[in-house]
Design brief:
The complex is a heterodimer.
Chain A lengths: L1 H18 L8 E6 L23 H4 L12 E6 L2 H31 L2
Antiparallel strand pairs in A: 1-2
Chain B lengths: L2 H27 L12 H8 L5 E3 L3 E4 L3 E6 L4 E9 L4 E11 L7 E5 L2 E3 L2 E3 L13 E3 H4 L5 E3 L4 E8 L5 E10 L6 E2 L5 E8 L4 E6 L3 E10 L2 E2 L2 E2 L12 E7 L8 E6 L3 E9 L3 E7 L5 E10 L2 H5 L7 H5 L3
Parallel strand pairs in B: 1-3, 2-4, 13-15
Antiparallel strand pairs in B: 3-12, 4-11, 5-10, 5-12, 6-9, 6-11, 7-8, 14-23, 15-22, 16-21, 16-23, 17-18, 19-20, 19-22
The chains are: A mainly alpha, B alpha+beta.
Chain lengths: 113, 322
Amino acid sequence: MMTRWALVVFVVLMLDRILFVPGTPIPTFQLLPQNSLETTPSSVTSESSSGTTTGPSASWSNSKASPYLDTRVILSLDVPIGLLRILLEQARYKAARNQAATNAQILAHVGRR
Amino acid sequence: MSPNFKLQCHFILILLTALRGESRYLEVQEAAVYDPLLLFSANLKRDLAEEQPYRRALRCLDMLSLPGQFTFTADRPQLHCAAFFIGEPEEFITIHYDLVSIDCQGGDFLKVFDGWILKGEKFPSSQDHPLPTMKRYTDFCESGLTRRSIRSSQNVAMVFFRVHEPGNGFTITIKTDPNLFPCNVISQTPSGRFTLVVPYQHQNCSFSIIYPVAIKISDLTLGHLHGLQLKKPAAGCGGTGDFVELLGGTGLDPSKMMPLADLCYPFLGPAQMKISCDNAVVRMVSSGKHINRVTFEYRQLEPFELETSTGNSIPEYCLSSL
């Protein structure tokens, strides 16, 4: 029991160290626990608890061998949805400019015939 | 003016317009011989086919809506980077590794996610995607170049990456493939029109618009026609059978959104709802026994519409998130 608790404390300390990045500007990654009760379509086989973790593999490599640690972590991006809209608008603008350049090239080809 | 004379005038006008165009062309080309078939010549097609793909540098936080080749090169340690990919609704996205120079042992990574995930919320949601969340990630450091291409299940995908060493990075090529029956879609634009069709498939499909919008549904078909008689599903709502639901929320995951309206039976004619949430979703639940189809238009709400509460809207829930 003492060994188990020591291991849990060790993992918590590691997690705390990994998540704390002083001075890191937005955006940041979220390392979120995977809820084992998450609903999945009935046609999909449920993933076993021994599945490999994602995230920085070097930092979590020891979790594979741990019989006590059943928390899996998924990688997510911690930015607001408003920023996503801004990025989307920028992407559309660049796409429109690229299309205009392509059209100009096509017209140049046609004009030379 | 007699109809015949009018027709003759129109004909003359058409000829004059054509002559004017030809004249302009002759002015530009001087003595060149006019040949309209040149537009379809093989040389022209070859010239266009040899166009270089779209290329640009990738930023640490980026959004791409065009196919092409993209290169990220770190000029300093870049620890929290992601690129979002979005195609047309009827397109799959393929991400191909052309060149990868990262130090996996040193903590670098390059992971592709099948969909978008933001603040822990995923699109498509776990309920609507065939794979569990963990299997939606493809890790370059695990698969290496044995799996150089990853294809998404919908029109969106994203890649997470971390590069410690300046000068390291990667080059990827983004391609798109046609998707005949788009199931899960994020709209590129805040306004548009779309028809979601689920033909005899037991699946749930969502169309997501990450803007406050007014949605006008013009046609909802649940079941297939036998002649002129529409066969209704046995059960329409209450979480069973075939139905459409409108959802609103502040994140990406439809399963975490507020249900705003359930459409349990087929109908024709406009049915409009204003959803002033950050994200609005039209979601179709299909039993697989029928061909289900919903056609709708959406437009971004104006600022003054967000301020006032009129008509068929639910402002209390959504405005609190603004």
